[in-house]
Amino acid sequence: MAHQAEVSMKVNGAESKSVIEPRMLLVHYLREELNLTGTHIGCDTSQCGACTVLLDGDPVKSCTVLAVQANGKSITTVEGLASKEGLHPIQMSFWEKHGLQCGFCTPGVMIAAIGLLNENPDPSEEEIRLALEGVICRCTGYQFIVDAVKHAAQTLREAGETKVAMADSMKA
Ligand code: FES
Ligand code: FES
């Protein structure tokens, strides 16, 4: 039997623990072990960004991280954004500003946007485009995505949020 490793991490506020092959990528752990299929796989070259999740608050491409490297850490996926009160302000902004078409890239785009807004609550268009350059969208032409992120930033500033609250932290 292949060597196995035990991993435990907090995913969207819930503790998860599994025994896996040490070579398992974080994206496969999330999708196959935890059934969190909102984190997408759009390439096998680490270029598309559809797999982007927050790892201890920082956006990472989860196809470039081994699940064992996330041991003991905290992960947020797109499933962690909405709460029982409704959609997250980022999701609402993408809805209102038509920041998606097919939606395949959208989970990664929104997570990357959260990473940006946590660092910079009032980004310029250029800063938004720079922060999102690692996530590729084949449909939208990006302008509506930029508009959605600007709108989300404004909504969060008006709400007085200096960090983008996650559904799991709002539950706590
Ligand atoms: S699946 Fe394309 S960058 Fe991760
Ligand atoms: S909305 Fe289709 S890939 Fe971005």
UniProtKB/TrEMBL annotation:
Molecular function in Gene Ontology: 2 iron, 2 sulfur cluster binding; metal ion binding; oxidoreductase activity
Keywords: 2Fe-2S, Iron, Iron-sulfur, Metal-binding, Oxidoreductase
Domain called 2Fe-2S ferredoxin-type: residue spans: 5-81
InterPro entries per record: 2Fe-2S-bd, 2Fe-2S-bd_dom_sf, 2Fe-2S_ferredoxin-like_sf, 2Fe-2S_ferredoxin-type, Beta-grasp_dom_sf, Diverse_Oxidoreductases
Pathway: Alkaloid degradation; nicotine degradation
PANTHER family tied to this protein: OXIDOREDUCTASE WITH IRON-SULFUR SUBUNIT
Name of the protein in question: Carbon monoxide dehydrogenase
